[in-house]
Amino acid sequence: MIKKIFLYPESAGALALNGALFAAAAIGLTALGNPASTGLCASCFLVNVAGALHLHAKASQSYLRPELLGIVLGAFFAACSSREFRVRGRSSPALHFAGGAFLLLGCEVFIGCPIKTMLRTAGGGGAGLVGLSGLAAGVAFAAAYLKDGFGFRPKTEIAESAGLVLPATAFLLLLAASMGAYLFASEGSGGGAIHAPFAVSAVAGLFFGAAGQRSRFCVTGSIRNAVMLRDFREGAGIVAFLAAALMLNLLLGNFLPTVALEPGAHTDLLWAFLATAMVGFGAILISGCPFRQLVLAASGDMDASAAVAGMLLGAALSVVLGIGSSPAGVTAAGKIAVLAGWIFFLAMGVRRRKAE
Question: What is the pTM of this model?
Answer without folding.
Answer: 0.93
